Amino acid sequence: MRIRHSFLVSALAVTALIATPGAAMASPDHVTEPHEGQHAQHGDHSWATRPSLRTLSMRSGLKVGTAVNMDLYGSDAAYTRIVDQQFNTVTPENVMKWQLVEPTQGTYDWAAADRLVAGARANHQLVRGHTLVWHNQLPSWFSTDGTTTSFTPQQVRDLLHKHVVDEVSHFRGKIWQWDVVNEAFNDDGTPRQSVFYKAYEALGLNGLDYVADAFRWAHQADPHALLFYNDYNLEFTGAKSNAVYDFVKQLQAQHVPIDGVGFQGHLDTQYGFPDLQNNLQRFADLGLKVALTEVDVRTFVQPDPANPGTYTDTPLTPELQATQESYWKQTLQACLDVPQCISYTVWGVADSNSWIPGVFTGEGAALLFDDNLNPKPQYQDLRQVLWTTKAPRRA
Ligand code: G3I
Fold this sequence. Notes:
TIM Barrel, 14 helices, eight-stranded parallel β-barrel, binds ligand G3I, 2 domains, globular
């Protein structure tokens, strides 16, 4: 019954949205109301019957997505329901990475990634493939540290070619956007000295030529997939963002088939809000699509008194919570305001399955849903922005 009711409400909302494109409507109660409350009570799922993020996103055509943890998808019913109902694009958080698809050299394991693609198809969601070439999460038979390997430079190039072609071919026709190369630059704007970079240099090539190779191989394997370069800290104007900007211009000049640039969007309240829209726009002005690909907003959280040395997912102060909300709204607003920004993906569903606490001690609360999979105020903030923004329509 709940699903039917939810579907009906969503359908009515879509009809209203389509009937009045771009109109500056007064927000209906079912959109503003949840913003007034804070966390839903445990077991109160009334929020789920109101227009979802994906329903509200139809007004602009911007796709809203999440990274999906395949240990939870399909086994945790509440988690799965949120992924299916709230988002119209999904990204595998881990299961398309080289380490997971080819754990033993020459033996592929596509099971988890295939399951994600099947779930997306069943729920009419587009898939962002993530990620083909990254110095991290490489199979141990290839490299354990991302910088060294026992293979010769020519073998590295050949193995990279095989990996890109085999993976893109396996998913041919099923991937909307591929993150072809991830994080090839350091924060100071220098190229990362990855195992790929070093192999290409040793071959007498420009170290970054592996990027052009990967895009060309991916394009040959699936000419219809949109091919993205994806990185963090591009949100801020600075050495890294400038270096990537110059680099993608060079790729374009060399007729490398690059379609877009992904801004990961891992923000932290202690660093201030970046000049995100300017950066999205200047890359878009190169004739590229752009996307927010891994948004989360971390902050300092309260220690857990019951377990010394561990932390809760509650922000330390109400001010930090307010800053987080402001950042969430601004990231989505920036993407909506740049017509070439085609998708907005959050990096996980709930605080309890976010990568943040494992990496940044004392920080967390970075996602839209709490540990009980109840929506946080930032979820309602995003709905509000989707509803109220008069954004240019995406194709
Ligand atoms: O699957 C193993 C499990 O068998 C083992 O028992 C356990 C012990 O630590 O590790 C599990 O693997 C972990 C894996 O996530 C799956 O949960 C790895 O240790 C852990 O390092 C890995 O973290 C992922 C991280 O990338 C790796 O750098 C995060 O989930 C994932 O969210 C994160 O995502 C990246 C994007 O791909 C690229 N941009 C940055 C972003 C955040 O780091």
